[in-house]
Amino acid sequence: MANSLDTFAQSKLAELEAGHLRRRLAETLREDGIWVSRGGRRLLSFSCNDYLNLTHHPKVKAAAAEAVARYGAGAGASRLITGNHPLFAELEARLAQLKQAEAACVFGSGYLANAGIIPTLVGPDDLLLVDELAHACLWAGAQLSRGRVEKFRHNDVAHVRAVLAEQRAAHDHALIVTDGVFSMDGDLAPLDELAALAQEYEAWLMSDDAHGLGVLGGGRGSSFLSGKKSAVDLQMGTLSKAIGSYGGYLCASAPVIDLIKTRARTLVYSTGLPPASAAAALTALDIIEAEPELAASPVAKAQAFTRAANLPLAQSTIVPIVLGEATAALEASEMLACEGFLVMAIRPPTVPAGTARLRLAFTAGHPDEEIARLAQIVRERLPGRQAR
Ligand SMILES: *Cc1c(COP(=O)(O)O)cnc(C)c1O
Q1: Where in the chain is the domain with CATH 3.40.640.10?
Q2: pLDDT grade, residue 203 (50/70/90)?
Q3: Does 386 score more than 60 pLDDT?
Q4: Strand segments (E) across the chain
Q5: Rounded CA gap, 272 and 209, in Å?
Q6: Which of 245, 246, 293, 334 is the most buried (most CB within 10 A)?
Q7: CATH 3.90.1150.10 residue ranges in the chain?
Q8: Is 316 in the active site?
Q9: Nearest alpha carbon, ligand 1 atom 5
Q10: Dist CA 342 CA 104 (whole Å)
């Protein structure tokens, strides 16, 4: 007889299956930065966040391999015990310099960074204002903080102002939290306007730049779009996307970073990043700094695609094609796979109900003629589709 735990799991799965929301892991072999094999098919991937194809860059791979040979496969302990490899200080200095911040802290992943940073800075007497489309791990951090969490309408600065006007005075501190580049929509946060509001209401501003580092603002990220740094107090991001490695980071003032290193639970109670991930990230940063045309290339490719497909001009490497129901997104994804393209369907709860979509991520290595062919298929076979 099935026990109640199995019964629970089975009924939950049946419910998700009925709503076309059950997910399955597909084994995928990434051959290089763009081609993948899965399910017996070789596909050109528009679903990797490896925007500069650095996961497979010979110098990045060599740096990781050499670090494994010299330092071993893992960090061995939390950074506060014995896991603080000397490469981390070098990586943090490089990140702080790139982001024009006083200091930086590297975490095991971007998710761990957000789950650690927010509860360290915000507590039960504080106010959090979070964009409704902010990444799931920012919401996780917000919930762990036990502060008062207010969701604001996507990129709606007037709504942020209204919430601050009404609630700021009743709280000790206030933190505004947003993605710099929205991961499923590819649009950009109004960082300068949010920074001005933060200053006016004595609030702090945090931006998650997972999809900006390496590809926007000359490689410095979305806080540098205007050429000079937006007043973002907490610049968080990941080493797992354009950097092609693994790990998360925060760049901020020296006292804030000292506090994070003393108190962030996902740093204190989690094993340090493998040294090889830091070595790979350092080499990737060298490449990005040495080759500014490389950093500009993925957004240029995304824009070439949106022009050819009659979609609104891409603002980042990410282009959504919103189709509505989960089934429509799954069918469109399969249609593109038959044409040789891997474009994953994104369904709720990753995106709001009724906005299931294809999400395309453009990388430096995508051949222009394949981008043109994909645009033609989208124009002819997914007509009338508007990006958000
Ligand atoms: C991917 C992503 C993260 C998580 O980063 P990892 O290093 O993969 O854990 C955080 N925020 C945003 C916006 C992301 O897209």
Answers
A1: 60-290
A2: very high
A3: no
A4: 29-30, 35-38, 41-45, 103-107, 127-131, 148-152, 174-179, 204-208, 234-238, 248-252, 318-324, 341-342, 345-346, 356-361
A5: 21
A6: 245
A7: 21-50+292-381
A8: no
A9: 110
A10: 36
pLDDT at 384: 58
Determine the 3-state secondary structure of 27 from DSSP.
coil
Q: Check if 222 is active-site.
A: no
Whether the pTM exceeds 0.70: the reply is yes
Q: Is 43 exposed, middle or buried (0-12, 13-18, 19+ CB in 10 A)?
A: buried
Helix (H/G/I), strand (E/B), else coil: 127: strand
Atom of ligand 1 nearest to the CA of 239: 7
SS3 382: coil
Torsion of CA 374, 296, 213, 52, to 10 degrees: 60
Q: Which of 222, 249, 256, 223 is nearest to 122 (CA)?
A: 256
Ligand 1: atom nearest CA of 181 is 13
- C-alpha of residue 383 to centroid of ligand 1, in Å: 31
Known catalytic membership, residue 211: yes
384: left (phi over 0), alpha (psi -120 to 50) or beta: left
Ligand 1 pocket check for 266: Cβ under 6 Å: no
Q: What percent of the chain has pLDDT over 90?
A: 96
**pLDDT tens-place string over residues 86-102:** 999 999 999 999 999 99
> What average pLDDT score do residues 189-214 get?
98
Indicate the pLDDT class of residue 227, thresholds 50, 70 and 90.
confident
Q: Is 208 in the pocket of ligand 1 (CB under 6 A)?
A: yes
Separation of 210 CA from ligand 1 center, angstroms?
6
Mind listing the pLDDT tens digit for each residue in 294-307? Answer: 999 999 999 999 99
Tell me how far apart the alpha carbons of residues 24 and 385 are, in angstroms, rounded to a whole number.
Answer: 26
pLDDT, tens digit, 9 for 90 and up, residues 254-310: 999 999 999 999 999 999 999 999 999 999 999 999 999 999 999 999 999 999 999
Nearest to 112 by CA among 64, 151, 144: 144
Whether residue 182 has its Cβ less than 6 Å from ligand 1: no
- How far apart are the CA of 238 and the centre of ligand 1, in A? 6
Mutate-to-test residue for ligand 1 from 109, 135, 270, highest number of ligand atoms within 8 A of CB: 135
CATH topology of domain 60-290: Aspartate Aminotransferase; domain 2 (3.40.640)
